[in-house]
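Exam revision sheet. Question 4 asks you to relate a sequence to its structure. Input first:
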Amino acid sequence: MRALVYLGPGSAELQDRPAAQLVNGDDVVVEVTGTGVCGTDRKILLGRFPARPGVVLGHESVGVVRETGPRVRSVGVGDRVVVNPTLYCGWCVPCRRGATNFCRHKAGTEVGVDRDGTYAEAVTLPERFVERIPAGLPFRSAVLIEPLACVLNNVGAASVTFDDTVVVLGAGPIGMLTALVAARRARRVTVAEPDGYRLEQAREQFAHVVDVAGTDPAEAVVKASGGERPSVVFDTTGTGLDAALRLVDDGGRVVVMGFDDTYTVPLHPLRLTNRGIRLIGAGDYRADVFPVAVDLAAELGGARRPGAGAGTVPVLERLVTHEFPLDRHAEAFTALGGLTQDDGYDGYDGTGRPPSYAALKVVIRSHPGPVGADGWPVDA
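Answer key, structure tokens:
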């Protein structure tokens, strides 16, 4: 089968790999329909997030069950499914207390990082990491289930309530999803973004959007809010902690969401203690969060309601702006800012130039055949 293989920073290529096949009795072989391009994928290729050279990239995947082992009961051949790429052993101490996101046996299990991922024609996974998709859920909504699980984990960690004012740094797919989920609880949500394309996309979804291009984002957001500071700040960029700490109100919470292994910021503990700020890192989502994301995706991105106008598109579908076949993977990453170190610095600390985006959520399709109006293969 064809698969996109990571060779090292700045380099990936399509290779012929052995076809996915059953190994254990509880295995499921999923024929991959498509995989969303995650910011982590881009940062792996930029050398800003560690991954194993030789691994097949990709993890935000949906597809159709092609084959099941004899012990599989929850899914069957022909089912549309979403991949849960956050694997866990189930028997270590954290797993037994429910903290599967902190499983102590992660080495070799991170799909698309150190275990072969889903930018491929098929993938094999244990049954418990393959979840059936609700009937009628369009492909372009289903492919956002995994990032939605990440967002649910982080918004939950912040304990957002109706009296909170929230600022989301970054209007990429994760930032947009974070704002959508937080808005279901918070009094007001503001999105801050420097890129013109993403600003336009955010303004179609949210009432409060601040252009922070060429400015100090903390100052720009406070000015736009009439001097008020938010009680919760989500940094979805991975490079905005300094701005978030300067922006958040006393007694507030800052949630660090984005991944960037090269970003550091000086942290004076007195800034936290004197101002009562809680700095939160939520980590991966627990196993019990993933089914919640499936249900929420069905609500936010389900089939068009009877009687709705022809132009009515579910909110999740609107986030998927571009799709590319597997053999045009380079174009997919170019649409998201490129893959060289001088393509830009997607940060908020004023030290670099943000990349220029030409897409919001990009999907790489592994299935080469025709698709129906719902985005799924016509034979699925």
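Marking note for examiners. The first strand starts at residue 2 and ends at 8.
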